[in-house]
Structure formats: structure tokens, C-alpha cells
Amino acid sequence: MASPVRTTAEKVQSMWNGNKLSANANMFLLLFLFSWLSSATASVSYDHRAIIIDGQKRILISGSIHYPRSTPEMWPDLIQKAKDGGLDVIQTYVFWNGHEPSPGKYYFEDRYDLVKFIKLVQKAGLYVHLRIGPYVCAEWNFGGFPAWLKYVPGIEFRTDNEPFKAAMKTFTEKIVGMMKAERLFQTQGGPIILSQIENEYGPVEWTIGAPGKAYTNWTAQMALGLDTGVPWVMCKQEDAPDPIIDTCNGFYCENFTPNKKYKPKMWTEVWTGWYTEFGGAVPTRPAQDLAFSVARFIQNGGSFANYYMYHGGTNFDRTSGLFVATSYDYDAPLDEYGLPREPKWSHLKYLHKAIKLAEAALVATDPAVTSLGKSQEAHVFNSSSGCAAFLANYDTKYSSRVSFGNRQYKLPPWSISILPDCKTEVLNTGRVGQSPPVDMTPVNTTLSWQSYIEDAASSTDDNTVTLDGLYEQINITRDATDYLWYMTDITIGPNEEFLKNGSYPLLTIDSAGHALHVFINGQLSGTVYARLASPKLRFNDTVKLRAGINKLALLSIAVGLPNVGVHFETWNAGVLGPVTLKGLNSGTWDMSRWKWTYKTGMKGEALSLHTVKGSSSVEWVEGPLLAQKQPLTWYKSIFHAPPGNAPLALDMASMGKGQVWINGQSIGRHWPGYIAHGSCGNCSYAGTYTENKCRTNCGQPSQRWYHVPQSWLNQSENLLVAFEEWGGDPTKISLVARSYENLGQTLYNIEGGSNHLRLQL
Ligand SMILES: *[C@@H]1O[C@H](CO)[C@@H](O)[C@H](O)[C@H]1NC(C)=O
Ligand SMILES: *[C@@H]1O[C@H](CO)[C@@H](O)[C@H](O)[C@H]1NC(C)=O
Ligand SMILES: *[C@@H]1O[C@H](CO)[C@@H](O)[C@H](O)[C@H]1NC(C)=O
Ligand SMILES: *[C@@H]1O[C@H](CO)[C@@H](O)[C@H](O)[C@H]1NC(C)=O
Ligand SMILES: *[C@@H]1O[C@H](CO)[C@@H](O)[C@H](O)[C@H]1NC(C)=O
Ligand SMILES: *[C@@H]1O[C@H](CO)[C@@H](O)[C@H](O)[C@H]1NC(C)=O
Ligand SMILES: *[C@@H]1O[C@H](CO)[C@@H](O)[C@H](O)[C@H]1NC(C)=O
Ligand SMILES: *[C@@H]1O[C@H](CO)[C@@H](O)[C@H](O)[C@H]1NC(C)=O
């Protein structure tokens, strides 16, 4: 693509004059569409320096937006904001378990309408990087694998295993076939310029050795055989077979080198923050450090950087991976609700503009590196295509004044200045604008509640099965629900000593995870829950048994299936024992081999209490009879939608743990009762960042607010249903709006260098 002949200085001037750039950009877009339409020349290839699209080497800025983590109604706006933020590419995984909920039964509608999502990206004029996986990790339930896959006879995940390879191939072919049929690959005139097969497989391969190596090779050949016409990448896979490009994921990737000289240096996951786990503090990553890491990657010869996540969104329904919170905000440039997170979004937007001003010079050559001081360097891209320089200060404490080409530049600690013409500093990554905080404000909607208490399950219920011994939870539930009841009878003879001496027996239950409520004769006797770092748990407490038959009912709760780890499919959940009772005349009873009766799911789930139709199948009470702080309670409220279009959330701070639905749609698991542990501290942007460095919310719920998509609401008669497992106060639940009146008011104060500019975005 030719661009209008202008000097870089003019371009710099026009860029900082705000919208004047768009005339240039429009021309650019026209030329771009023109070359796109003449698809005879459509091609994507690469060389050592960059991805080459229709003959043009490109510096590509990309961002992850996972389509099922928002609603289709949100997609156009998210994509537009990504474009406004300076992105060229939208990257997404493909979520197998959403698309094939049971074998051979495919689903591509609503939030899983992959083709619609890709076409919206195309309509906005952006490219797509499609990470088919089909293993995706992604803090997503089972890493994207359908639960049924585990029960295919003889299967072992992600290794040289025939049943696994057959299933993986079928799904990959299905997706590639769909993309081809819709003409979505770039060579067909579509937006997909890159694909990905497998995902972060290198660490698994190092662990398992030869079968891993064979699997990698098979995977590569299988993908290449699908003949998509666009390059494949494998991330975190140092031995990615040719011509597949191995790529880097991480907080920093400046020192990454691809495995062959003729492959470009690509960063498939620039971590913009980190995920929140239930019980964990909330990770954040400062905008300065994020921008610094990207600028450093580009100055070191990188040519593709993808923000993971650009919009993190929400783990609706039961899509979260093990112990992963419902919010997948990720401290991304677009927050969970789709609003720009300032100053991060704007800072990156300006970074992208600065990089794009240098693009022609960057792709033409490798950088020449010169020292400017003890911890200061210049990276200069100088050729007949232009001159661009990056001036870096790696010192984490002190700013530095450096001389470059007869000029002086002041570099804050841990920062890079970009000079697209080797003279004019248009941006320093360490100088960031100020923004007013975004808040949650109550909206004028009153929620009035009704409740229905569900009894602890009983062995005389319908749909139970009695087995000898203890069984793994997912084997029985097949992940159709979080809940599995384990029930047995404990018969206490009249002569037990403890009945006379005022003590109670000690019940000890070992569970593979993830949370457990213990009911004795219908009364909750205790609750135990684990955490991500160690999902196993133990209940160990005295229980009030009486003479005669005692009904023990254990409610074992899965909090998502694991999404990462070698052979994570073999990790168990549920009460696997031992289960023992101590303090009886005859000593300790081992109950592990007793007959146990199993019941899958809650009664309210079977009755579909979360739907309009189902909710009328039980008697609800209200007013003074409203249940509070009671376990196993269903709550419902009918409400009017508040006026306006601000993104909405439920403030669930007064509740324990459970699930919430709006008009029959699941907004996910709530668990504000899990208070964030760990350390939160002051967070300096300078110095190497880790996921533990900048955390907030210590002593507060890990997640207090739960996104309610506007598109799920009707004007009136909205049905809100919450299932509370262990007890909460629904009268304090409120609907709040994410305030964004101050957005667009970010003051961008760029000082130093040759630019003293104060821009209003
Ligand atoms: C890789 O797989 C291909 C096709 O399955 C096979 O022909 C080749 O021998 C394998 N190479 C290695 C190094 O295993
Ligand atoms: C770039 O190259 C030109 C031509 O060789 C040279 O005159 C100029 O000084 C170089 N600029 C920098 C910053 O190295
Ligand atoms: C809140 O809504 C009610 C009912 O729609 C209305 O009567 C009242 O004036 C509203 N209050 C405010 C502060 O907007
Ligand atoms: C799964 O449960 C069935 C009984 O429903 C049992 O026969 C089988 O051994 C279990 N498999 C595993 C892997 O636990
Ligand atoms: C269970 O609790 C008892 C009484 O508090 C204690 O003595 C025992 O060590 C505990 N056992 C385990 C396995 O934690
Ligand atoms: C009561 O009797 C039980 C069973 O013999 C025994 O284990 C326990 O230590 C006794 N407790 C007291 C307080 O004497
Ligand atoms: C909301 O409105 C839609 C369309 O009018 C309707 O199909 C749906 O049943 C309504 N939902 C509820 C919970 O009333
Ligand atoms: C954190 O440190 C910075 C820089 O030292 C300081 O300006 C800021 O006030 C500190 N914030 C808190 C909450 O301590």
C-alpha cells in the first residue's frame, strides 16, 4: 500500500492535532480496501521482520476479545473501541465446549456465533487472528474441552493418543471448514490473517517427553494439511515445526527469539493484567509498565503484539475455569463492561499512533543498538525507508537525560521515548494522563424479594442412585451442574458413651474439592471451601448425632473444572474420602466403603426456578417470612429496567455463594463471601512486573459486582433469581450502574521532550 507522500514531521504534527489524522487514515483505508477487494493478490506470508499482507510488511497491533465473554449486542461497540484504540487485529480463541456441548451436536448461536463475530470485525475493517486450539486454557472451564471428552474410552488429553487426536482433528476441521465456507480467510477476501493450533504446549512437551514431541509434530501436520492459505502460529512452543511460527506469551517478551531466522518475532499474549480467582486479591498492571513492555518489544525487532486481554469481559454461566472469578476483567484497556479503562486505554492508543508513525522505518530493517548511558540505549531503524528511534531508560529509580543526534531527551525511569523521525519525541511510555476514577452508582430500581428454601436432599428423593463407596463427582454429574449430593445414614446405638457424657463424635471428610456443605438431619453443620492453589479440602468437626438413624447429606460443589496442568483431565472433584467418625464406643468408623446415595443437582435446578415458567412451580414467601441467612435458598425479584444505557451490575456484597440469573440467562457464579486474602501494596510501575505485584481488594470480596448485560433486560417484568448456597441477606442486593460520565475527559499531560502538549481525548 502506498501512502501519500508526506514527511514524518508533517505526520507527527497531524497526529498530535487529533482528528486530522483521520483524513489520512481514510485514504489509507480506501487503498487498503481496494487491495483487499482485488483478492487475486490476496496473500499472507512472513519474513524475518514481519507478517506480510498483500505484499506489505506490517507492524500489527492486536487485542484479544473472546466472543462468549460478552453479548452479541456488545460486539460492535467493543470492536469499534478496539479500532479507535489503534488496533489492527482482533484475536480470539475458539471455545470447543461452547460449540459442541454434546458429541456431534453443534451450537453456534447467540454468544457462540463465531461467524457473526468475525464478520463484525471484518465490517469494522480489522483483521482476525483465530486461535482454534482447540485447547485454549483461557481460565475457561476445562480449558475449552467439553466435559464429555474425558469419557471417550481410552482418551488422554494433549498427547500422542489416537482417540484424542481423532476428536481434536474433527473439531479443528469443523472450524476451518466453517471459516472457508463463509470465505473468512484473508486469501478468500476475509479478515483472518493468522490461525493458531494448540496453545502453550511447550511446557507440557518438556514434561512428558517423546509422546509430546510426536503429538506436536502430528498437530502441526494436521493443521498445515487444512490448507487455510494463512500462516499458523504455535505459542510457547520453541520447537514449532516449519513453517509454523513459534510465538511468545508473557508480561515481557523483548528477549524472545523465534526458532528460525526467517520467522518474525511475535507476541501472542501481552498480559494486560491478570485474572482474579475467588478468594484472591484483584491484579492490576500499570499502564506505564504495559506500554513500556510493548515499546521495548517493538524496539527489539518485534512486529506483532496482541494484548491479552484487550477486553476480558465476563465468565457468564458456568464457563469459568477452576476457582476463576465470574469477572474476567483482567485490568484490560476495555473494562469488563466494555468501557475504556483510563488512563490505560488512551495511553496505549497514543503508543499505537506513535508506533504506526514509525511503521515504514521499522519494517524496513533491523535496529542498530547504541548505548546512551549505563542503563540507557537507543534502538535506531534507519534505512532508505526512513529513520525511527526508540530511546530507552531501564533504570527503575532514576530518570535520565540522554543525548541523541545533537538533542537532549529526558527519560523517566523504566520508560521509552519514540521518535518516529529520529528527532521528534511523540511519546514517552512513562508519562501517562490522569483520569477520574470510574465508580459504581446505585440506580433507582427497588428490588423486592421472595424466597423459597430448598430442603437438603434425602435418599428417598427421585433420581437418586445408591452405590458402594465414594465416587468422583464429575463422573456422576458430567458437569451438568456444580452440585452433587452424597448421602448416607449413620445409626447410633442407645448405649454410645458420647450420648451420656456431653461430647459429640468427630466427623472427618476428605474431598478432592472444591466446596462442601455438611448437613446432619437437614441442618447445616458446617461449610468448607478450598482455593485454586490447593483445591482439596477437609471437613473435620464434631457433629450433633442423636440415638437412632441420622441422615448425613454432603453437598459437594464444583467451582469450575481445571483449565491448565499436565493431564488436568485426571484431576478429581468431590468426596473421595476417607470419611471417618471418631469418638464412638467401638473406636473409629471408616464410612468410605459404606453405601452412599447420590443425587445430581439441586431441586430448584430440576424445576428451572430461574425461568418464568419454572419459578411458578413452588410456593414463594415474602415480607416477614422472607428467608435470610438460610442455606439452600432461592430468591426472586421482578423489577423494571432502570432508565439509560449505562452498563449495569448487581452488588452482591451481602450474599455468600451461589448463582444468579436474569430472565433465565445465567450471569454466573456469585461468591462475594470469599474475602480476598494475600497482600495488596503500593504499586510502582517501574521494575519488572509479576502477577502478584499490583493487587487490590485485600479484605474485600474478590468479586462484589456482577455484570448484567443491558440486552438481557426488558423494560419491565424482569425476573431476577439467585440461588444462595450458604446464607445471605438479599434485601441488601442492589442494581448499580457503571458510571462513565467522566469518560472522554481524560487529561493527557505530556511533558518533557520537545512536546509540551495538553490534549483532551
Ligand atoms: C512428523 O509427522 C509427519 C506426518 O505425520 C511424518 O511424516 C514425519 O516423519 C514426522 N516427523 C517427525 C520428526 O516425527
Ligand atoms: C540515518 O542514515 C542516514 C544515511 O546514512 C544518516 O545520514 C543519518 O545520520 C542516520 N541517522 C541516524 C539517527 O542514525
Ligand atoms: C425512582 O423511581 C420511582 C418509580 O419509578 C419514582 O417515583 C421516583 O421519583 C424515582 N426517584 C428518583 C430519585 O429518580
Ligand atoms: C464412573 O462411575 C461409574 C458408575 O456410575 C463407575 O462404574 C466408573 O468406574 C466410574 N469411573 C471413574 C473413572 O471413576
Ligand atoms: C481434627 O480435629 C481434631 C479436634 O480438633 C484434631 O485433634 C485433629 O488433629 C484434626 N484432624 C485433622 C486430620 O485435621
Ligand atoms: C465421651 O465418650 C467418648 C466415647 O467413649 C470418648 O471418646 C470421649 O472422650 C468422652 N468425652 C468426655 C468429655 O469424657
Ligand atoms: C422479554 O421480552 C422478550 C421480547 O418481548 C420476551 O420474549 C421475553 O419473554 C421477555 N422476558 C421476560 C422475562 O419477560
Ligand atoms: C505509592 O507510591 C507513590 C510513589 O512513591 C506515591 O506517590 C503514592 O502516594 C503511594 N500510594 C499509596 C497508596 O501509598
Automatic annotation (TrEMBL):
Alphabetical UniProt keywords: Glycosidase, Hydrolase, Signal
Domain Beta-galactosidase galactose-binding stretches: 483-536, 632-718
Highest taxon of source: Eukaryota
Enzyme Commission no: 3.2.1.23
Record carries keyword NAD: no
Domain annotation Beta-galactosidase beta-sandwich: ranges: 377-432
GO biological process: carbohydrate metabolic process
Segments forming a coiled coil: none
TM regions (residue ranges): none
Enzyme class (EC, first level): hydrolase
Position of the signal peptide: 1-42
Domain Glycoside hydrolase 35 catalytic: residue ranges: 51-354
Known catalytic reactions: Hydrolysis of terminal non-reducing beta-D-galactose residues in beta-D-galactosides
UniProt GO MF annotations: beta-galactosidase activity
The keyword Hydrolase is assigned to this record: yes
Family: Belongs to the glycosyl hydrolase 35 family.
Protein name per the record: Beta-galactosidase
Species whose genome carries this gene: Rosa chinensis
